[in-house]
User: Fold this.
Amino acid sequence: MFTRIFGAVLSIAAVLAGAIIPRVHAAFDGGIPGPALMPLVALAVIALGGAGMAWAAAPETSLPIRENLRQVGGALGLLAAGVTYAAAMPILGFVLATAVFILMTCLVFGGRHPVILIVLTILVPLALHYGFAGIFNLPLPEASFLQE
Assistant:
């Protein structure tokens, strides 16, 4: 049940996020796709993956209504965390916002081992920043409170 609910919520969120991205037309400069196209492609892949999860999830036994509500709440909570993460990124910057997002989602979903939490919270945002900014030369949001 959770997989179906999560897949449906994921698809809807990706489609809505794609619909409200400003300046979608800026993805093409003279007919050539640029870096602005990347979020739209990622959202399309997320929406298709979520739809696949919702459609192809194995049927499960019937759960009590309280468990169903807990699963729906978890899916909506993760969606809210993603929206908060996206909203915080221009203020906190990519690295700090990603670290906070990873830490909070790990804690919410049961991560309790401190060494793993610290390693994930530090290494994943730095690796992602290096990959996007260093290798692909894509600009990432910087913390607005650090800029003069």
Q: What stands out?
A: Strands lie at 28-29, 32-33. Helices lie at 2-20, 37-56, 65-92, 94-108, 114-135. The chain has two domains: 1-61, 63-148.
